[in-house]
Design a protein that fits this description.
InterPro entries: MJ0683-like (IPR040086), rSAM (IPR007197)
Protein name: DNA repair photolyase
Bound molecules: iron/sulfur cluster
Order of helices and strands: EEEEHEHEHHEHEHHEHEHHE
Radius of gyration: 19 Å
Number of domains: 2
Oligomer: single chain
Strand order of the largest sheet: 2-3-6-7-8-9-10-11
Keywords: Iron, Iron-sulfur, Lyase, Metal-binding
GO molecular function: iron-sulfur cluster binding; lyase activity; metal ion binding
Number of strands: 11
Distance between the termini: 43 Å
């Protein structure tokens, strides 16, 4: 059994300004991520955070999580400030997303409910002089617990929920994301969200070895749109590809072929699809 460390930490910031186009702020209720995907960009970024020093130097990504125990109160303070500014500047609109540097529905969320309580705060303060568009991106079926809240995002508030699905093949998932929920459970999650008439999307990224057409067929009934991205830092996972004799799937040409097949399949079904990387073919 691997050593896992969970610590309660205090943050002085709930809303982080985002450099991602179309997103104004992100909320990361946790530091670190128990799913510990081998290719995770947040692993690299977390090394520059003051919270990394709270954990032993030699602990691996996925084996620690900091619970930002005061984030709900911080969010309320920051939203009140934004609200005060908005009333001076006139109606404003913000896009706020959970989460870019962690999974908002990892195991700790079941106990600590930080994502849920932050959503409640967003619900309370939006619509009073500013319009709020909330996005959620996760790999976890735990997101279904909060359907009751998602359904309240109407009128001045809107919400979309994305599920990251990187392959159709659970054996491949086990190689790159051994501690994350199964592919089947993620597809079921999308299905249930759609049954509840929520706006959903699939984030197919990074592209892992897959049968692109099979994956598109399995999820196309449950998504409003699809985003696609390649493995961006191949050098970080090259050893994993080699150890499993799947080097063919780490080339630019593989990412191009798969994304083209996905675009073709989803487009033929009338589903909007956006590729987030430049075709290097
Ligand atoms: S679920 Fe997301 S944040 Fe967590 S390890 Fe995987 S890629 Fe990183």
């Amino acid at each position: 059994m691997k050593r896992k460390i969970l610590k309660l930490i205090e943050t002085n910031k709930a809303l982080s300004k985002s450099r991602i186009p179309g997103i104004d702020y992100t909320i990361n209720p946790y530091f670190g991520c128990e799913f510990g995907c081998s290719y995770c960009y947040a692993d690299f970024m977390s090394r520059f955070s003051k919270f990394r020093k709270v954990f032993p130097d030699d602990i691996e990504w996925g084996d620690f999580v900091g619970v930002k125990i005061n984030i709900v109160e911080r969010l309320e303070i920051e939203l009140k400030k934004i609200l005060a500014k908005s009333s001076l500047l006139g109606e404003q609109e913000f896009n706020i997303w959970f989460s870019i540097m962690t999974d908002p529905y990892q195991f700790a969320e079941k106990k600590f409910l930080l994502t849920r309580r932050c959503l409640e705060v967003l619900l309370k303060y939006s619509g009073e002089g500013f319009k709020l568009n909330v996005g959620v991106l996760t790999r976890s079926p735990l997101v279904l617990r909060d359907i009751d809240l998602f359904k309240q995002f109407i009128g001045e508030k809107s919400i979309e929920i994305g599920i990251s699905i990187t392959t159709d093949n659970d054996n491949i998932r086990k190689i790159f994301e051994p501690e994350a929920p199964t592919i089947r459970s993620r597809i079921k999650t999308l299905e249930k969200l759609k049954e509840n008439n929520l706006k959903t999307f699939a984030f197919i990224g990074p592209i892992l070895p897959m049968d692109a057409r099979e994956l598109a067929n399995q999820i196309s009934d449950f998504v409003d749109y699809v985003l696609i991205d390649r493995m961006n830092y191949v050098w970080r996972t090259a050893a994993i590809y080699r150890a499993n004799s799947i080097e063919f799937a780490m080339s630019d040409s593989y990412f191009n072929v798969v994304s083209e097949a996905l675009v073709e399949e989803f487009s033929s079904k009338g589903i909007a699809v956006e590729v987030l990387f430049q075709n290097k073919g």
